[in-house]
Every structure is written in structure tokens, then in C-alpha cells.
Prior knowledge:
mainly alpha
Amino acid sequence: MWEIVTAGGWLMLPIVACSVVALAIVGERFFSLRSGKVLPENLVADVWRMASTRQLTDEKIREIQQGSPLGRVLAAGLTNRSHERENMKASIEEVGGHVAHELTRYLNALGTIAAVTPLLGLLGTVVGMISVFTNITTVGVGNPAQLAGGISQALITTAGGLMVAIPALMFHRYFRAKVDGLVVDMEKESLKLVDVLQKRQAPSRVAQG
């Protein structure tokens, strides 16, 4: 494998570097975008139970906020639970936008790698072919083996670039779709909590009126 990399010339170095970065991003995103980590199971039910038993103190809200991305969104609504429904939704949507942005962390870099590595491979091919034709003009076509070796070296970079770009593009699209799904699920869970809290507070507001 290393012989193939060295045979591709100096442009294989940035391609290999891109592959290492892409692999690191994919591993990190797989770890960070786990459903159980982003959307802890039964979190809304636990929050509602604490709210119904008057255990939802400021310290508990901070713990919920620091526990997960969904917790951050729910905490925004809980902080404003004494306000009207629209105020709660506005605070949830504001924090939800920040959380959604954080969930897409490094995905732009992964998309850039998917777009750039084929171009690096193509550049390596062009540079290699220029070298081949330079040799032809210098020594002629009397050595087919030398020409074949030069062409092979030129094509290695294209193959290397595509081998990095194709999986990078696939994972980029996969993580984008996963983030979209997680954001939709967070919105559903947070609105569920808003509706439950508002229904609970409605009788007290009527009594006060």
C-alpha cells in the first residue's frame, strides 16, 4: 500500500491527509450523534414527573441542560414555563437552532474533503501526464515501459482521490440526514413537554382569573 502511495507522487500526501481527517470526523460524528446521547430515552417523562411532584428546581434544570442536546432544548422551555405558550416555544426554537448548528459540527469539513480530493487526484493526473509528455519530447517514445510507468503514476492520484471522496460524500449525506431526523425528534419532544406543562398550568390560570 505504501508503495502505491509513494508511486503517486507528492500530491498523494494531501490526499492521504484528507483521508485521515475524514476518518477522524466520521468516528467522532458516529460517537456524538448516537440517538441515546442526543435524545435520552424517557427524558420528557422524567421531566414531567419532576414538574408534577414539584421537584423541578433550578439545580435540576441545570442538570437537565448539561445532560444532552435535548436537555438543553427542554431546559430553555422549563426556564420560561411560567410564561405563555408562545414565549416557551420561542425560547425553545432559539436554543434549538444553536443545538442543531452544533450537531452539524465538522460536517462542512467532511463535505469539503469529498469535493476537494477528486480535484487533487485530477491535478495529480494532469501533472503526471505533463511529465510523461515532457519525457516524450525529450527522449521520444522508444521506451514503452517508462511511458506506462509514468501514466500509471499519473492515474494513481485520481484513484486515490476518488477512494477518499466517495466514502466521505456518503458519510456526509448520511450524517446530514441523521441530524435532520434528530432535530425533528427534538422538536417533537420539546413541543410535547410544552403542551403538557401548559395544560397543567391552565387550571391555575383560570382560577386566578
